[in-house]
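Hey, can you fold this one?
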Amino acid sequence: MHSKIYWIETIANLRLAIMARPRAGDWLQDEISHWKESGVEIVVSLLESEEVSELELELEATFCRQNDIAFISFPIPDRGLPTDTQAALRLASTLTNTGKPVAIHCRAGIGRSSIMAAAVLITAGFTPEEALHAIQKARGLPIPDTDNQRNWVLELKS
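Sure. Predicted structure:
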């Protein structure tokens, strides 16, 4: 059983998904192979270094590269916000303009991943409300985790 990839309905030239962190240990390579088979070409991990160690995901970047998946680490505190909004928006803009399928993950695929996905959608022209609605529809449950995260998204402008 692989971690589910939640593809978000976006615009024609943007394929974007959120997901929970991959299973670790003996399953990690299989998880990342599944991402490749599912069309993912760029993975953005929002986990902090302590979480990476705790979850035994130190080899995630290596296995991504072995599967020709670009790996980007952009740590955000659990249930928190990016420490640098401008850096988050620069990353979102880069992801919007790559033309490659992107999957963003945090620990559970609810809070941090949804606010970064919202930033990507907003840089692609969605309103903050449209972005949150599209992500919530794909994820099938209320997003993000906290009011602070929701407010951060609502304050973003394209």
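Residues 88 and 145 are 18 Å apart (CA to CA). Let me know if you want another pass with a different chain boundary.
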